[in-house]
Batch of 2 targets.
Target 1
Amino acid sequence: MSNYIPTIGIEVHCELKTNTKIFSNSVNGYGQMANSLTNVIDLGYPGTLPTLNQEVLNLAIKAALILNCKIRRQMHFDRKNYFYPDNPKNYQITQAETPIGYDGYVEITVNGKKKKIEIEEMHIEEDTCKSTHRGEKTLLDFNRAGVPLIEIVTKPCMESGEEAKLYLEKLKELLFYSDVSDCKMEEGSMRADANVSIRKNIDDEYGTKAEIKNIGSISNVKLSIEKEIERQSKIYDNGETFLPQTRRFDDKLNDTVLMRVKETGNDYRYFPEPDIPYVILTDEQIAEVRKTIPMLPDERREKYLSLGINEKITEKLVGNRSLSDYLNNLLDKKLDFKTAANLLLGDISFYLNKNELEITDTKLTPTRFIELVDNMSNKTLTSKNLKDILDTIMESDKTIKEIVKETGIENITDDNAIKEIVQKVISENPDSVTDYKAGKDRAIKYLMGQVMKESKGSANPAMAMDILKEELNK
Amino acid sequence: MKYLDKTIEEIHNALKTKEIKPIDLVEEAFERIEKNKDLNAYITLNKEEALKKAKSLEEKEVGDNLLFGLPIAVKDNIVTKDLKTTCASHILDNFIPIYNATVVEKLEQNDMIIIGKTNMDEFAMGSSSRTSYFGAPKNPWNKEKISGGSSGGSATTIAARDVLFALGTDTGGSIRQPASYTGIVGMKPTYGRVSRYGLIAFASSLDQIGPMTRNVYENALLLNAIVGHDDKDLTSANKEKEDFTRLINKDISGMKIALPSYFMSDIVTEEIRNEVEKAKKVLEENGATVDIIDMKYLDKAVTLYQIIAMGEASSNLARFDGIRYGFSVENPKNIDDLYLETRKIGFGKEVKRRIMVGSYLLSGENAKIYYNKALSIRDDMKKEFDKVFADYDLIIGPTTTTTAYNLTDPMDDPSKSFMDDVLVIPVNMAGLPGLSLPIGFGKSHMPIGLHIIGNSFEEAKIYQLASFLEKELNLDLDSRKGDNNV
């Protein structure tokens, strides 16, 4: 097989996380009884008119900002006319002429190098209803009809399935993080189409395009692109050609399958939607939306690494938005962030998972958390101690100090008390003392063990070691 | 008992003093409708529910609302909950809506009683109501003649004096032209004045609901009841509440009125021009000035209308596919067959013609060549009107180029039918309010209407002029006597 240069563009549809639908006040929900979330507007009843959900505009502005898009200040909606049973009005309200966002980008890292994936445009539209084919019959569920979508279209700027995968992962992370969308590909709240063509030389025109529709997972996007490149390469290698076409990925065959050969230019008879007046976005509105954007994942990564948190913990933390947010609230505090991150992802995560709670549902206020971290950090509390009292920490309002006192696991951090124990151990083990003085390392470990035993495990180990050394060297 | 021939105040007082009850008015209306059955003004009568509603109003205080307990006819493209709404089309001849149009809610709030759904051109596409699946209504002045369209049924029932009030809709003259042909008062309000929610769309950027009545005062009263901002219609205007009767009987001296020369050109018959001239004189004698002016773009209106209205209609009517409501063919072979056969059988000839032309106009590059171009010329036309209204209070002209013609006249020249509306269409293009007022009669005593156009949201000023002329001319507009004259 010869080498070709692949060119890939990706179109993503994302359902916006709004309370209600885009053009009616029906609830925007998933997994409900079929046709229970519908009204006359969603069903395209005669005489009904669309309203416009402001929440949709705000989320779309947010998405455009996150994707580094320019935002159009004056825009309108258009009708895309086509007959299909899942399309209740037989036209879809979309933005063909004036997409809300354009000229944006998403940055990915491919083989250690940064690359900007350019976004051609991003527009708002309504989702269709869901059709299920049962033998001869087709069942229609209009719960999805009128759910708000944004469609994000990249330029043909990717060169491999891997790049497409990295782009989609990044996109998903961004939109999910900023509460724009659930981005659940398995529930269809995020859907991807890939346009794939190949050419021999970089100076050649783009090759014939195949569009792979509605791919069900990010890994399948990568796989289907790779399979498609392979298929097209074989055709060209054989000196053959093919027509522009629409394909789908079949997970059983693990390959793309032809759906239809594209006819010359679909004619959707677009025209401006007369039922929705022009929408004007003001700088104030955009500024308001900008305020609602949380710190984005890449910025968090940079921050955590700079605080000395290792890469593995950083990734885990970024992957858990609520814990990451929790930590971010403390960024202006003086804190051992390494210990804090370890605590959050270790014992605290374990507790939260076990009890199916969010950290904000517990009584671990930032003040108490800081106290806890300080206690761990200065070794007042050992991790064994912590395991014993964690439930109490998470479920009561008491200070960590009070809890420690009540449960009697208080570390002996009193210099004199430890000194007494150390002196006792030294006087009872003259042989080991001699060994130590003769330079035998093993001896101090034994003596230390005796100190801990004598204190019933409650001496602060670091302090005990310091005092032990001090006493031995006297 | 002839309460429905009395003035609105007399009826109201009779209700207030319990001399009559709303049910008496409803029964009288149905007696008249029954007697005028051959006029074919109605598609569906709402007798049982209307009587029930009238009964229920007996429990209620009559109050000061002049519209309380009065029967009203509603054009059959306005959806009425639980009452069949057909758009005069086979494709909706079994359609019983599950919700009310906003205007219908407003009629309810005003304690009016819906008496039935009036005949019209199929989906309001036509100007003689002859495209109705249920046959054309007849003109009460002469049953050989058309009542005009598309609100022909509403015009007919008012002209026949079945009821005092009717709602019509106007996309390219469909209230004013039939009002002119039948000698009644018809107002198309400013675009956005009345909510379109529940009006089955023909051309969304032009459609507007309006009142059709036997006189100017009652027209303004009904407009008072149906206007207002509606959250369900993004194109509805947010305006302060006002009383449209407030300038009625006010002096018109000093009013500046424009009469575009195009409206008095030879596209209009001489007898109509003469009546307009007479009205002009009356106005001038009473202190108004009437200037003949030249206006650009008026002659382009029909072409623009055809492009915009048909383009929008082709999309608006796409939802009638036999899947969710309305007529549906049985045992289709596949989904395409369901679409094709349902729409082939369900729609009439004129509707299909307009859908096809509209689809063509929006197709591929045509949208830019035709539709977008038409929208931009439409803006220019609006600006031309703005220029006139900078200097004038109102614009007048004839409503129609001829009086009502014969029901049997050929229908095979579609562009001729648009010419019926050549004088009224510019008003829809500019979104302005316009009213047709009877000002005289032509040969064989067919009514002639004066078209009064106002600036946006200046309906009250139109009523001021119309009521003045109405009083001065003092015409006998009762078609039942007119009928006897023929």
Note: Chain A has three domains: 5-284, 295-407, 415-472.
Target 2
Amino acid sequence: MSTLPSPTSTHSALRWAFSDVLTMARRNLLALFRIPVAIVFMIIQPIMFVLLFRYVFGGIIRIPHVSYVNYLIPGILVQTTMFGSVGTAIGLAEDLQKGLIERFRALPMARLAVLAGRTVSDLFRNLLVLVIITGVGFLVGFRPHGGFAAYIQACLLMLLFAYCLSWGFAFIGLAAPNSEAAQAITFPLIFPLAFASAIFVPVSSMPGWLQPFAYNQPVSQTADAVRGLMLGTPHGQSSWIALAWAFGALLVLAPLAVNKYRKVA
Amino acid sequence: MPEYAVEALNIVRTFSAGDVRALDDVTLRVPTGQVFGLLGPNGSGKTTMVRILATILTPSSGSATVAGFDVVKQPNQVRRRIGLAGQSATVDENLTGLENLRMVGLLNHLNKSYVVAKSVQLLNDFGLADAGNRITKTYSGGMRRRLDLAAALVASPPILFLDEPTTGLDPQSRQDLWGIIERLVEGGTTVLLTTQYLEEADRLAKQLVVLNHGKIIAEGTSQELKEQMGATVLALTFSSTGDALRAQPLLADLSIQPANIEGSVLEMTVDNGPSVTADALRRIDSAGIILNGLALREPSLDDVFLNLTGHRAEDIDVETPIETGRRGRRKSNA
């Protein structure tokens, strides 16, 4: 048998898989910080939504028992993290297009690390954007009273939701012919989830035929839970329902993405 | 090391639900410690073969071992012993040269301090020391190829797959890369090289296989392939293409296969060089055609290819899209 001249460490397979995920995540984050413009583009859209709804439409929206800015910002945060997870599709489609996935496939690395590394780095990016947009929210008058612990819980909940969703976008990124197409495919999928939801206005203000969908869909449940936690207002079972949606999505979407990755060559 | 670094038996690979046979019953045996050339035009199946051996694709039927390990059943054992560079490998353009090498080293599960030392050494060896901390987006084509090759070498693999490593490079970069490949082989590395440049195969490869439309159409050393031709090439240079065309019918019976005209040069494959030359000169002279130059030479691999396939190696790019793979990601960069 051949002897390899290079010193290979002797970790277990699981530790190597973990190390591979970190290596891949680090690579994605390095690329992200290399292009400062990319970060600007990531936060510019949510900032525009904040300004648009706070100062343009906000004046005519009346919500009982709560100021509109307090209603709006938790919703915007959920929308921002959800839109952020679309980056998973674009990043993977680009890697595939440029032939990087091919290089990774010929390396003795854990197979799952390409997908896991991508979703983990996108989670970090989402955390960064979440912090920035929270700051913007405070600047325009957002004043939550739910307490620090509940605020952190709310952040974890929406990051978890976005993370689970990013496995679905991983599938789209691998299935799309290129990154532009990946982006185009995701838009009609997330549009109804984002706008027929409790993100900007209460579902009760929508037409009757739309309410059942708008009320029960995962983005509304997540937004209700996040808002309730941040503002310290009752939010029923929505935290649990949001958690169930997130894990349910992960259970369905992750195997889909992994299976697609195996077939892409 | 087993006797053969790479052994592929009766490999068949079909695409598009069996409609396209990219590889059709290909058997290869690559001896350890030398350069083995896989020669063929675009779409001949070279890249598909490399992707199968590098465990990126699985064969539709047939089997292959690399360093003694089965590419389908023991892919991770194979991956630990190979390096892949060329058109199917690539560098991450958002990372620096050093970061690229570091990433590949860590994904090969080498320890960190070793990876950094080895990466710096490779950057030095390949003339990239100054560019090591620059983002590879700013690299020239030649620098990218050298970095790509360096990345394939971080783990010091005993077997290297080079898929058209010099396609699209300028002559100087090509010479540099050839030098690097020769030094690697002196150091004991086995190289499977695919190329559409006959000059490259002639210079580097000890043994050759010629692929066309997924089938092996010839194999042997380049000397054997030339001898197989058993003929010499007579090249006649006229003052114009018109003259070459006028001369062609007069000389048709002297050539053992259809003569070939490129510009004002008429090339014929002849059995008995000197006597045929004298005959040809007489006929041209009596027809009143002026001859500008004359050369009699041993057949090149290009001639061999022409002889085997009926066309030149480098002029059929668009005909067979087999190697573009799904999604058309791979550009056919001739």
Note: Chain A touches chain B at residues 1-2, 4-9, 11, 16, 19-20, 23-24, 27, 30-31, 34-35, 96-100, 102-109, 113, 177-178, 265 (CB under 8 Å).
